[in-house]
Amino acid sequence: MDDKKEKLQSAAHFLFLKNGYKNTNIAQIAKKAGVAVGSFYNYYPSKQAIFLEVYIAENEAVRNRFVQEINWEGDIEQLIGQFFAYTVKNIMNNNILIEWNNGSVSKMLHDYYYSQTGRENNSFYRFLQETVSKRLQKEKIAPDLIGKVLKVFDFIYYIDCHVTGHEFEGYNETLQTFVQYFIKGITSATK
Predict the structure, then answer these.
(1) Which DSSP string do the residues of 83-150 spell out, in sequence order?
(2) DSSP state for residue 88 in the 8-state scheme
């Protein structure tokens, strides 16, 4: 990667994490990176473009830490609780990742993650699909039911890419309740 681009990314990451999207501007990013504002535009057409790049990298890093910290062989219902607790602790308190629900940039983020490219590049999404599928196979769930469960997983992903907390009051709690009771229903049906 070009040295100036790397400096811009590093500066943008620092400033977005410290100040959030709204309170960071291109001049601040360029100054922190030690480059002229005009040089910024040689690498990025807008603040949104660099933010998307920073967001993707931050999301990947936080999700990878989550994957490493959780015991994925544990009780599946407890895993759901851990997932949402981790989300509140590490995502809702992160000035970059909290922008998922910010109306000024959430559409860009949602559009990217719901696009074919976004889904293919989302290693956490793929990890969850594979992990859920393997867990259900281990529980001797019929392949057709696994397919239905994965379709519900896709539906949850769709909802997450099309609804924000600003549009639906109580969104995070409602999503957690939906997922918890869905998993309870699946696990109780297989016992």
Answers:
(1) HHHHIIIIITT-TTGGGGG-TTTHHHHHHHHHSHHHHHH-HHHHHHHHHHHHHHHHTT--HHHHHHHH
(2) I
The strand ranges marked E within the chain are: none
Residue written as token pair 């057409």: 45
The Cα–Cα gap between 71 and 131 comes to 12
Q: Look up residue 119 and give its amino acid.
A: R
What CATH number labels 1-45?
Answer: 1.10.10.60
Report which DSSP code applies to 89: I
Q: Are 175 and 68 in contact (CB under 8 A)?
A: no
Which amino acid, one-letter code, is at 136?
Answer: L
From first to last of its 191 residues, the chain has per-residue pLDDT tens of: 689 999 999 999 999 999 999 999 999 999 999 999 999 999 999 999 999 999 999 999 999 999 998 888 888 788 888 888 888 888 888 999 999 988 789 999 999 999 999 999 999 999 989 998 998 888 888 899 889 889 998 999 999 999 887 788 888 889 889 988 888 887 776 66
